[in-house]
Amino acid sequence: MANVAFYLITSLMYAALAAYFWRTLWLVPAEGAPRTRAASLERVIVLAPLIAHAALIYVSVFAGAGVRLGVANAVSIIVWLTVLIYWLGNLFYDIEGLQGMVMPVAAIGAFLPVLFPEVRALPNTELATFKVHLLISMLAYSLFTIAALHVLLMALIERRLHGAHLPLALQKLPPLLTMETLLFRIIAAGFVLLTLTLATGLVFSEEVFGKALRFEHKTVFGILSWLIFAALLGGRQFYGWRGRVAVRWTLAGFLVLVLAYIGSKFVLEVILGRGYA
Fold first, then answer.
1. In terms of Cα–Cα distance, which of 130, 150, 5 is closest to 82?
2. Which of 90, 237, 82, 94 minimizes the C-alpha distance to 149?
């Protein structure tokens, strides 16, 4: 594993940005000078921990023989992709309010491999199906992480909509209907990736174990999360689901998705001290 100091520095960079965004966007009223120049500079500054985090992921997960993908490294990858997708999305959408929510999560996720180091490599990582499955699944998790944070932000806006002094972070966000449209675009993209994740998982399982569908913890919860998001998208399309209904279904689907992979790996590796299943 890379020197602990580099993990600490990367985590502290995320934490410093989290404190900065909370101070400048969440703890001040909406009045004041435009932040166009500051926002542009902030996008550049975020690249520093993002690049450092990418280097740490490479060293922890991919450097050497095989792929070391314990629960901490998996969370670290998902968090990094979440920040990257958010950073790219912020180039096209005014979603600065998410900065104060994403950065604290990134600060924790970047440091997790130090607390729960993984030295063993996963078997069968040389297979092309595994590589495709890994990439798609990590992207799916990242998109649904953003969706969960996005929907929490929407719920907060709705609760404080009639407040006299909204923080700048909430004032700068697009209207709720626009944010809702963006939410369902994120969920739809995540759903496509989740579908591909399940499909490539079946192919990988057939190739390695000779059985496409193994009824185990992560398979059951993975299919259940797919059904929840399918129902949410169907309800949106045919019944116009929105508001609190969308919030509940999004958070429920995200929770089940977390239990499908991260939850099972945490129980096996951290609590029970077992190897890969």
1. 150
2. 82
Alpha-carbon dihedral 167, 251, 229, 134, rounded to 10 degrees:
90
Report the C-alpha gap between 38 and 45 in whole angstroms: 10
Cβ-contact 70, 121 below 8 angstroms: no
Q: For 45-192, where are the E strands, in sequence order?
A: none
Could you tell me the residue ranges of all domains in the chain?
A: 4-271
Neighbours of 210 (CB within 10 A): 7
* DSSP reduced 3-state for 3: coil
Query: Would residue 233 be called left, alpha or beta, if left means φ above 0 and alpha means ψ between -120 and 50 degrees?
Result: alpha
Contact 29, 167 (CB under 8 A): yes
Q: Measured between alpha carbons, how far is 109 from 129 in angstroms, rounded to an integer?
A: 27
Q: Is 135 exposed, middle or buried (0-12, 13-18, 19+ CB in 10 A)?
A: middle
CA 206 to CA 212: how far, in whole Å?
4
pLDDT, tens only, 1-59: 558 999 999 999 999 999 988 888 776 655 544 555 567 788 889 999 999 999 999 98
Judged by DSSP in three states, 167 sits in: strand
CA gap 96, 124 in Å, rounded: 41
Q: What's the CA gap between 59 and 50, in Å, rounded? A: 15
Amino acid present at 69: L
The answer to whether the pTM exceeds 0.90 is: no
What distance in Å separates the CA atoms of residue 150 and residue 183, rounded to the nearest whole number? Answer: 7
